[in-house]
Amino acid sequence: MGLAGFYPGRLVDLAYVQRFTPLMEQRLQQAGARLAVVLNQALPESGSVLP
């Protein structure tokens, strides 16, 4: 399995994907939690919806 074009001249093989998928999922969850904190701090608590 390769992701052609992701890194020009490189392919990501299935073993790499299987090895690092748990880490990638963990990092995405952490990034989502950090983004939620930033958005909660930046947006008003009134519950109003932006146009």
Describe the fold and architecture:
It is a single chain. This protein is mostly helical and 51 residues long. It has a domain at 14-39. 57% of the residues lie in helices and 0% in strands. The protein contains 1 helix and no strands. It has one helix at 14-42. The model has no long low-confidence stretch (mean pLDDT 82).
Task: From the structure above, extract its key features.
0% strand, 51 residues, mainly alpha, single chain, 57% helix
Brief summary of the model shown:
The protein has 51 residues and is mainly alpha-helical.
Would you identify the regions where 5 or more consecutive residues have pLDDT less than 50? none
* Mean pLDDT value: 82
**Roughly how many Å apart are the termini?**
43 Å
- Which series of helices and strands comes N to C? H
The tally of helices reads: 1
The proportion of residues forming helix, as a percent range, comes to 55-70%
Coarse shape: elongated
| Strand residue percentage | under 5%
Strand count, sense and closure of the main sheet?
Answer: none
SS-based structural class? Answer: mainly alpha
- Rounded to an integer, what's the Rg over CA atoms? 18 Å
Kindly state the number of beta strands.
0
